[in-house]
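Hi C.,

You asked whether I'd gotten around to modeling the 395-residue construct. I have! Everything is below, sequence then structure, no commentary in between.
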Amino acid sequence: MKRHLVYTAVLITFLALCVALVNFRVDPLLLYYHRNSGDEVLSRVEQFPNMRLYKPYHVARIKPRTVIIGTSRSGTIRLPARREGDRSAYNLSMPGLTMHEMLGMVKHAHAGEPLRRLIIGLDFLALVSTTPLSRPGYEESRLSGASDQTPSSATLLQRFGDARETLFSFDMLRQSLRAIRRPDNLPRLYFADGSWRQLGTRLSGNAGYIYNARFGLNLSNVEHFRTGENILILEQLLDFCHRNNIETTLFFTPVHAFFVDIWHRLGKESLWRDAHSEVLRVNRQAAQRAGREPFEVLGFQTEAEVVTEPIYPTGKASDSWLSDGLHFGDKLAIRIIESISGSPHTFGESLDQRSLNPYLDRTDSIRRDFLRSNEKQVMTLYDKIEFVRSAESVQ
Protein backbone atom coordinates (compact mmCIF):
# COMPACT_ATOMS: atom_id res chain seq x y z
CA MET A 1 0.00 0.00 0.00
CA LYS A 2 2.80 2.38 0.95
CA ARG A 3 4.64 1.53 -2.28
CA HIS A 4 1.46 2.22 -4.24
CA LEU A 5 1.21 5.69 -2.66
CA VAL A 6 4.83 6.39 -3.48
CA TYR A 7 4.30 5.38 -7.12
CA THR A 8 1.20 7.55 -7.29
CA ALA A 9 3.05 10.53 -5.83
CA VAL A 10 5.94 10.05 -8.26
CA LEU A 11 3.53 9.81 -11.20
CA ILE A 12 1.64 12.96 -10.16
CA THR A 13 4.90 14.83 -9.68
CA PHE A 14 6.15 13.68 -13.07
CA LEU A 15 2.94 14.79 -14.79
CA ALA A 16 3.03 18.17 -13.02
CA LEU A 17 6.63 18.70 -14.13
CA CYS A 18 5.73 17.75 -17.70
CA VAL A 19 2.89 20.29 -17.68
CA ALA A 20 5.23 22.93 -16.27
CA LEU A 21 7.90 22.16 -18.86
CA VAL A 22 5.44 22.48 -21.75
CA ASN A 23 4.03 25.73 -20.36
CA PHE A 24 7.52 27.09 -19.77
CA ARG A 25 8.85 26.27 -23.24
CA VAL A 26 5.72 27.39 -25.11
CA ASP A 27 5.17 30.36 -22.78
CA PRO A 28 1.97 31.76 -24.36
CA LEU A 29 2.07 34.90 -22.15
CA LEU A 30 5.77 35.72 -22.72
CA LEU A 31 6.65 35.46 -19.04
CA TYR A 32 9.50 32.92 -19.07
CA TYR A 33 11.18 31.22 -22.03
CA HIS A 34 10.02 33.71 -24.68
CA ARG A 35 10.04 36.77 -22.45
CA ASN A 36 12.03 38.93 -24.87
CA SER A 37 10.28 37.73 -28.01
CA GLY A 38 8.17 39.91 -30.22
CA ASP A 39 4.76 40.18 -31.80
CA GLU A 40 4.56 36.80 -33.52
CA VAL A 41 4.94 34.85 -30.27
CA LEU A 42 2.40 36.93 -28.36
CA SER A 43 -0.14 36.51 -31.15
CA ARG A 44 -0.30 32.72 -30.98
CA VAL A 45 -3.33 32.78 -28.65
CA GLU A 46 -6.20 35.16 -27.90
CA GLN A 47 -4.83 37.45 -25.17
CA PHE A 48 -7.90 39.48 -24.12
CA PRO A 49 -8.61 37.26 -21.04
CA ASN A 50 -4.94 37.29 -19.98
CA MET A 51 -3.99 40.97 -19.97
CA ARG A 52 -4.58 41.66 -16.28
CA LEU A 53 -2.19 38.82 -15.53
CA TYR A 54 0.69 39.38 -17.95
CA LYS A 55 0.71 43.15 -18.56
CA PRO A 56 1.85 44.05 -15.01
CA TYR A 57 4.82 41.71 -15.48
CA HIS A 58 5.59 42.96 -18.99
CA VAL A 59 5.57 46.63 -18.02
CA ALA A 60 7.72 45.90 -14.95
CA ARG A 61 10.27 44.16 -17.16
CA ILE A 62 10.25 46.68 -20.02
CA LYS A 63 10.29 49.75 -17.75
CA PRO A 64 8.87 52.14 -20.37
CA ARG A 65 9.19 55.89 -20.02
CA THR A 66 6.03 56.50 -22.07
CA VAL A 67 2.71 54.77 -21.40
CA ILE A 68 -0.73 54.98 -22.94
CA ILE A 69 -3.63 53.63 -20.93
CA GLY A 70 -7.38 53.23 -21.31
CA THR A 71 -10.03 50.68 -22.18
CA SER A 72 -9.90 48.44 -25.25
CA ARG A 73 -10.74 51.50 -27.35
CA SER A 74 -7.25 52.87 -26.62
CA GLY A 75 -5.55 49.52 -27.11
CA THR A 76 -5.15 49.81 -30.89
CA ILE A 77 -3.05 52.97 -30.63
CA ARG A 78 0.61 52.25 -31.30
CA LEU A 79 2.94 54.78 -29.78
CA PRO A 80 5.75 56.31 -31.86
CA ALA A 81 8.78 54.09 -32.22
CA ARG A 82 11.44 54.98 -29.67
CA ARG A 83 14.43 56.94 -30.80
CA GLU A 84 17.89 55.51 -30.31
CA GLY A 85 18.84 55.73 -26.66
CA ASP A 86 15.27 56.23 -25.46
CA ARG A 87 13.41 53.71 -23.41
CA SER A 88 10.53 51.90 -25.05
CA ALA A 89 6.89 52.89 -24.88
CA TYR A 90 4.09 50.57 -23.79
CA ASN A 91 0.32 50.45 -24.22
CA LEU A 92 -1.21 49.44 -20.86
CA SER A 93 -4.80 49.55 -22.11
CA MET A 94 -7.05 46.60 -21.24
CA PRO A 95 -10.61 45.56 -22.05
CA GLY A 96 -13.06 47.22 -19.67
CA LEU A 97 -10.32 48.91 -17.66
CA THR A 98 -11.84 50.75 -14.70
CA MET A 99 -10.59 54.04 -13.30
CA HIS A 100 -9.47 52.25 -10.12
CA GLU A 101 -7.43 49.80 -12.19
CA MET A 102 -6.01 52.64 -14.26
CA LEU A 103 -4.69 54.41 -11.16
CA GLY A 104 -3.09 51.21 -9.87
CA MET A 105 -1.49 50.36 -13.21
CA VAL A 106 0.00 53.84 -13.70
CA LYS A 107 1.54 53.73 -10.21
CA HIS A 108 2.86 50.26 -10.96
CA ALA A 109 4.48 51.40 -14.23
CA HIS A 110 6.00 54.44 -12.54
CA ALA A 111 7.46 52.30 -9.74
CA GLY A 112 9.57 50.31 -12.19
CA GLU A 113 11.08 53.39 -13.85
CA PRO A 114 9.81 56.97 -13.47
CA LEU A 115 7.43 57.80 -16.31
CA ARG A 116 8.11 60.84 -18.45
CA ARG A 117 4.97 60.70 -20.58
CA LEU A 118 1.44 59.43 -19.95
CA ILE A 119 -1.47 59.41 -22.42
CA ILE A 120 -4.88 58.67 -20.89
CA GLY A 121 -7.81 57.58 -23.05
CA LEU A 122 -11.10 58.50 -21.33
CA ASP A 123 -14.04 56.24 -22.14
CA PHE A 124 -17.49 57.65 -21.29
CA LEU A 125 -18.68 54.38 -19.70
CA ALA A 126 -15.49 54.09 -17.64
CA LEU A 127 -16.16 57.59 -16.31
CA VAL A 128 -19.79 56.99 -15.33
CA SER A 129 -19.97 53.29 -14.46
CA THR A 130 -20.33 52.68 -10.72
CA THR A 131 -19.45 48.98 -10.66
CA PRO A 132 -17.25 47.07 -10.51
CA LEU A 133 -14.23 48.66 -8.86
CA SER A 134 -12.05 46.18 -10.76
CA ARG A 135 -12.55 43.35 -13.23
CA PRO A 136 -11.77 39.63 -12.76
CA GLY A 137 -8.05 38.99 -13.05
CA TYR A 138 -6.94 42.30 -11.57
CA GLU A 139 -4.98 41.87 -8.33
CA GLU A 140 -3.60 44.78 -6.31
CA SER A 141 -0.91 42.50 -4.86
CA ARG A 142 0.44 41.93 -8.36
CA LEU A 143 1.39 45.59 -8.61
CA SER A 144 4.52 47.27 -7.34
CA GLY A 145 4.73 49.96 -4.72
CA ALA A 146 7.72 52.25 -4.51
CA SER A 147 10.66 50.83 -6.43
CA ASP A 148 12.92 50.78 -3.38
CA GLN A 149 10.54 48.76 -1.22
CA THR A 150 11.06 45.09 -0.44
CA PRO A 151 8.14 43.11 -1.89
CA SER A 152 5.47 42.51 0.73
CA SER A 153 4.37 39.04 1.74
CA ALA A 154 1.14 39.56 -0.24
CA THR A 155 3.17 40.39 -3.35
CA LEU A 156 5.39 37.34 -2.91
CA LEU A 157 2.33 35.12 -2.43
CA GLN A 158 0.77 36.61 -5.57
CA ARG A 159 3.92 35.95 -7.58
CA PHE A 160 3.95 32.36 -6.32
CA GLY A 161 0.29 31.97 -7.24
CA ASP A 162 0.87 33.45 -10.69
CA ALA A 163 3.80 31.09 -11.28
CA ARG A 164 1.62 28.15 -10.26
CA GLU A 165 -1.19 29.34 -12.56
CA THR A 166 1.05 29.92 -15.56
CA LEU A 167 3.25 26.82 -15.18
CA PHE A 168 1.35 24.04 -13.43
CA SER A 169 -2.28 24.62 -14.46
CA PHE A 170 -4.13 22.62 -17.09
CA ASP A 171 -5.89 25.83 -18.20
CA MET A 172 -2.51 27.25 -19.21
CA LEU A 173 -1.61 23.91 -20.80
CA ARG A 174 -4.66 24.27 -23.05
CA GLN A 175 -3.43 27.71 -24.07
CA SER A 176 0.03 26.31 -24.71
CA LEU A 177 -1.41 23.62 -26.97
CA ARG A 178 -3.37 26.28 -28.86
CA ALA A 179 -0.15 28.27 -29.24
CA ILE A 180 1.61 25.22 -30.68
CA ARG A 181 -1.20 24.74 -33.22
CA ARG A 182 -1.12 28.48 -34.07
CA PRO A 183 -4.78 28.85 -35.12
CA ASP A 184 -5.27 31.11 -38.12
CA ASN A 185 -8.65 32.51 -37.09
CA LEU A 186 -7.68 34.64 -34.08
CA PRO A 187 -9.62 37.93 -33.93
CA ARG A 188 -6.62 40.12 -33.06
CA LEU A 189 -2.90 40.54 -33.67
CA TYR A 190 -0.96 41.42 -30.52
CA PHE A 191 2.18 43.52 -30.41
CA ALA A 192 5.01 43.40 -27.86
CA ASP A 193 4.45 47.09 -27.07
CA GLY A 194 1.09 46.18 -25.49
CA SER A 195 -1.11 47.33 -28.37
CA TRP A 196 -3.16 45.16 -30.70
CA ARG A 197 -4.92 45.26 -34.06
CA GLN A 198 -8.32 43.86 -34.94
CA LEU A 199 -8.26 41.07 -37.52
CA GLY A 200 -11.67 39.44 -37.38
CA THR A 201 -14.67 40.99 -39.12
CA ARG A 202 -17.48 39.06 -37.40
CA LEU A 203 -18.36 42.00 -35.13
CA SER A 204 -17.42 44.82 -37.47
CA GLY A 205 -19.77 47.10 -39.32
CA ASN A 206 -23.51 46.63 -38.84
CA ALA A 207 -23.16 43.56 -36.57
CA GLY A 208 -20.65 45.38 -34.36
CA TYR A 209 -22.98 48.35 -33.94
CA ILE A 210 -25.82 46.04 -32.91
CA TYR A 211 -23.65 44.07 -30.47
CA ASN A 212 -22.20 47.17 -28.78
CA ALA A 213 -25.60 48.89 -28.63
CA ARG A 214 -27.19 45.88 -26.93
CA PHE A 215 -24.33 45.74 -24.45
CA GLY A 216 -24.78 49.41 -23.58
CA LEU A 217 -28.54 49.07 -23.25
CA ASN A 218 -28.25 45.99 -21.03
CA LEU A 219 -25.73 47.80 -18.86
CA SER A 220 -28.04 50.79 -18.51
CA ASN A 221 -30.77 48.48 -17.22
CA VAL A 222 -28.70 47.25 -14.27
CA GLU A 223 -26.53 50.25 -13.43
CA HIS A 224 -27.23 53.73 -12.16
CA PHE A 225 -24.58 55.80 -13.88
CA ARG A 226 -22.93 58.80 -12.26
CA THR A 227 -19.56 60.51 -12.37
CA GLY A 228 -18.66 60.98 -8.69
CA GLU A 229 -16.46 58.04 -7.67
CA ASN A 230 -14.59 57.70 -10.95
CA ILE A 231 -13.91 61.43 -11.22
CA LEU A 232 -12.40 61.36 -7.72
CA ILE A 233 -10.10 58.52 -8.79
CA LEU A 234 -9.14 60.43 -11.93
CA GLU A 235 -8.32 63.43 -9.74
CA GLN A 236 -6.02 61.24 -7.62
CA LEU A 237 -4.29 60.09 -10.80
CA LEU A 238 -3.78 63.66 -12.01
CA ASP A 239 -2.39 64.67 -8.61
CA PHE A 240 0.01 61.73 -8.84
CA CYS A 241 1.15 62.84 -12.30
CA HIS A 242 1.79 66.41 -11.12
CA ARG A 243 3.72 65.26 -8.04
CA ASN A 244 5.93 63.03 -10.15
CA ASN A 245 6.44 65.45 -13.06
CA ILE A 246 4.79 63.14 -15.60
CA GLU A 247 3.91 64.96 -18.81
CA THR A 248 0.29 63.94 -19.29
CA THR A 249 -2.30 64.26 -22.05
CA LEU A 250 -5.92 63.18 -21.71
CA PHE A 251 -8.27 62.54 -24.62
CA PHE A 252 -11.93 61.61 -24.85
CA THR A 253 -12.21 58.52 -27.06
CA PRO A 254 -14.47 59.33 -30.02
CA VAL A 255 -17.55 57.26 -30.85
CA HIS A 256 -19.92 57.18 -33.77
CA ALA A 257 -22.81 59.65 -33.58
CA PHE A 258 -25.20 56.68 -33.40
CA PHE A 259 -23.91 55.82 -29.93
CA VAL A 260 -24.12 59.41 -28.73
CA ASP A 261 -27.73 59.31 -29.88
CA ILE A 262 -28.38 56.17 -27.81
CA TRP A 263 -27.23 57.94 -24.65
CA HIS A 264 -29.34 60.96 -25.48
CA ARG A 265 -32.45 58.83 -26.04
CA LEU A 266 -31.83 57.10 -22.71
CA GLY A 267 -31.95 60.50 -21.05
CA LYS A 268 -28.18 60.63 -20.43
CA GLU A 269 -27.42 63.81 -22.36
CA SER A 270 -26.75 65.77 -19.17
CA LEU A 271 -24.51 62.94 -17.91
CA TRP A 272 -22.61 63.01 -21.21
CA ARG A 273 -21.99 66.73 -20.78
CA ASP A 274 -21.28 66.45 -17.06
CA ALA A 275 -18.62 63.77 -17.63
CA HIS A 276 -16.71 66.12 -19.95
CA SER A 277 -17.14 69.09 -17.62
CA GLU A 278 -16.06 67.14 -14.54
CA VAL A 279 -12.87 65.94 -16.22
CA LEU A 280 -11.92 69.54 -17.02
CA ARG A 281 -12.84 70.66 -13.51
CA VAL A 282 -10.62 68.15 -11.68
CA ASN A 283 -7.85 68.71 -14.21
CA ARG A 284 -7.92 72.42 -13.42
CA GLN A 285 -8.08 71.85 -9.65
CA ALA A 286 -5.21 69.35 -9.68
CA ALA A 287 -3.12 71.89 -11.58
CA GLN A 288 -3.97 74.65 -9.10
CA ARG A 289 -2.88 72.47 -6.18
CA ALA A 290 0.40 71.76 -7.96
CA GLY A 291 0.91 75.37 -9.01
CA ARG A 292 1.05 74.35 -12.67
CA GLU A 293 -0.88 74.61 -15.91
CA PRO A 294 -3.65 72.03 -16.45
CA PHE A 295 -2.81 69.00 -18.54
CA GLU A 296 -4.02 69.15 -22.12
CA VAL A 297 -7.39 67.50 -22.80
CA LEU A 298 -8.31 66.64 -26.39
CA GLY A 299 -11.68 65.83 -27.94
CA PHE A 300 -12.31 64.27 -31.36
CA GLN A 301 -16.10 64.06 -31.38
CA THR A 302 -16.45 67.02 -33.76
CA GLU A 303 -14.49 65.27 -36.51
CA ALA A 304 -17.61 64.73 -38.65
CA GLU A 305 -15.81 62.56 -41.20
CA VAL A 306 -15.06 60.10 -38.39
CA VAL A 307 -18.18 60.14 -36.22
CA THR A 308 -20.73 60.21 -39.07
CA GLU A 309 -19.04 57.78 -41.44
CA PRO A 310 -21.36 55.23 -43.10
CA ILE A 311 -22.40 52.21 -41.05
CA TYR A 312 -20.94 49.55 -43.28
CA PRO A 313 -22.35 46.05 -43.79
CA THR A 314 -20.87 43.38 -41.55
CA GLY A 315 -17.37 42.43 -42.61
CA LYS A 316 -17.00 45.41 -44.94
CA ALA A 317 -15.57 47.90 -42.44
CA SER A 318 -11.88 47.15 -42.96
CA ASP A 319 -11.05 50.73 -43.97
CA SER A 320 -13.43 52.47 -41.58
CA TRP A 321 -12.49 55.00 -38.92
CA LEU A 322 -14.53 53.14 -36.28
CA SER A 323 -14.75 49.42 -37.05
CA ASP A 324 -17.83 48.83 -34.87
CA GLY A 325 -18.82 52.37 -33.95
CA LEU A 326 -16.62 52.35 -30.83
CA HIS A 327 -13.22 50.79 -31.54
CA PHE A 328 -10.63 52.52 -33.70
CA GLY A 329 -9.62 51.38 -37.12
CA ASP A 330 -5.95 51.66 -38.02
CA LYS A 331 -6.19 55.08 -39.65
CA LEU A 332 -8.05 56.61 -36.69
CA ALA A 333 -5.53 55.22 -34.21
CA ILE A 334 -2.72 56.75 -36.27
CA ARG A 335 -4.43 60.14 -36.56
CA ILE A 336 -5.12 60.31 -32.82
CA ILE A 337 -1.54 59.61 -31.77
CA GLU A 338 -0.24 62.01 -34.45
CA SER A 339 -2.54 64.72 -33.10
CA ILE A 340 -1.47 64.08 -29.50
CA SER A 341 2.19 64.21 -30.51
CA GLY A 342 1.88 67.27 -32.72
CA SER A 343 1.26 70.97 -32.19
CA PRO A 344 -0.78 72.78 -33.30
CA HIS A 345 -3.48 70.14 -33.59
CA THR A 346 -4.85 69.57 -37.07
CA PHE A 347 -7.14 66.78 -35.88
CA GLY A 348 -9.34 67.10 -32.80
CA GLU A 349 -9.68 70.03 -30.42
CA SER A 350 -7.96 71.12 -27.23
CA LEU A 351 -10.66 71.56 -24.59
CA ASP A 352 -10.95 73.90 -21.62
CA GLN A 353 -13.84 75.35 -19.64
CA ARG A 354 -14.41 78.09 -22.22
CA SER A 355 -14.35 75.87 -25.32
CA LEU A 356 -16.21 72.87 -23.88
CA ASN A 357 -19.84 73.93 -24.34
CA PRO A 358 -19.35 75.07 -27.97
CA TYR A 359 -17.57 71.75 -28.60
CA LEU A 360 -20.45 69.74 -27.11
CA ASP A 361 -23.00 71.85 -29.01
CA ARG A 362 -21.21 71.05 -32.28
CA THR A 363 -21.15 67.39 -31.26
CA ASP A 364 -24.92 67.46 -30.85
CA SER A 365 -25.40 69.29 -34.15
CA ILE A 366 -23.31 66.65 -35.93
CA ARG A 367 -25.40 63.92 -34.30
CA ARG A 368 -28.66 65.49 -35.53
CA ASP A 369 -27.30 65.97 -39.04
CA PHE A 370 -26.39 62.28 -39.15
CA LEU A 371 -29.86 61.27 -37.97
CA ARG A 372 -31.58 63.41 -40.60
CA SER A 373 -29.46 61.93 -43.37
CA ASN A 374 -29.67 58.32 -42.18
CA GLU A 375 -33.05 58.12 -40.45
CA LYS A 376 -34.15 54.88 -42.12
CA GLN A 377 -30.92 53.02 -41.33
CA VAL A 378 -30.86 54.32 -37.74
CA MET A 379 -34.46 53.25 -37.12
CA THR A 380 -33.69 49.82 -38.57
CA LEU A 381 -30.77 49.48 -36.15
CA TYR A 382 -32.94 50.52 -33.23
CA ASP A 383 -35.49 47.87 -34.22
CA LYS A 384 -32.77 45.21 -34.37
CA ILE A 385 -31.49 46.04 -30.89
CA GLU A 386 -35.08 46.13 -29.63
CA PHE A 387 -34.66 49.65 -28.36
CA VAL A 388 -37.85 51.35 -27.18
CA ARG A 389 -37.61 54.72 -28.86
CA SER A 390 -38.32 57.85 -26.93
CA ALA A 391 -40.98 60.35 -27.97
CA GLU A 392 -38.24 62.58 -29.33
CA SER A 393 -38.39 62.64 -33.11
CA VAL A 394 -35.43 63.18 -35.35
CA GLN A 395 -35.53 66.89 -35.98
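If it helps when you're writing up: The first strand starts at residue 66 and ends at 69.

Thanks,
B.
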